[in-house]
Amino acid sequence: MIRSQRADGYRIVTIDRPDRRNALTPAGLTQLKAAIDDAQEPVIYLRGAGSAFCAGADLDVVSKLTDPHAFAEHGQRVANTIEQAESVVIAGIDGPARGGGVELALACDIRIGTPTATFAEPGVKFGLFGAWGGTVRLPRILGEGDALDFALSGRTIDADEALRIGLVSRLTDTPETVAASIAENKSDALSVLKTRLRDHGPTATQANAEAAAFEQLVNKYAPEIAADRS
């Protein structure tokens, strides 16, 4: 269900179940977590196979769950693995992202959509909601007002609206080129920037850590910086 392959300086992780719009089962979640954990490249490009990004949890599985709490925690662990990965994780969203698919995208560092990307949290229409960390990340990324509108309505939004409210950061026909471009940068600088930008600790602690990280990179790359200026 999950394919992982190395590209030129980055890792491509594909949710590969196009006949089910890449809906995830517990086994698929386990495979996805392993693929993220195992990646050694500085950038991971997460995509879906076929005409969808990810339809979220497989509803045939959800309808037969004997332990829904454990299933929610399983999805949360996968989303946390994506968010906390040392690599920069970029979601390339081409076609529909629904429910848990939106939640996995929210856990990524950057979300790039194509003009055909669409997004929805449709579970509310039949008595469910995304429980893979979406209720935490959605208002943090969109702001409370847009998050409530998106989640409570269950409506589908198109790529242009997703860009307007900040669900994606840009639109392009070829999202993978963004991953390739970012992968050309220094890997340790990418890692430091991700850590610093994801740090929600006290301001004073963040400032000290920022200065320390800057010092480390300057000491490492000073000759290269000087050569570039000459």
TrEMBL record:
Single Gene Ontology MF annotation: catalytic activity
Gene3D superfamilies associated with the record: 2-enoyl-CoA Hydratase, Chain A, domain 1
Stored CDD domains: crotonase-like
Database matches in InterPro entries: ClpP/crotonase-like_dom_sf, Enoyl-CoA_hyd/isom_CS, Enoyl-CoA_hydra/iso
A Pfam family per the record: ECH_1
UniProt record similarity statement: Belongs to the enoyl-CoA hydratase/isomerase family.
Protein name per UniProt: Enoyl-CoA hydratase/isomerase family protein
Species per Swiss-Prot/TrEMBL record: Natronocalculus amylovorans
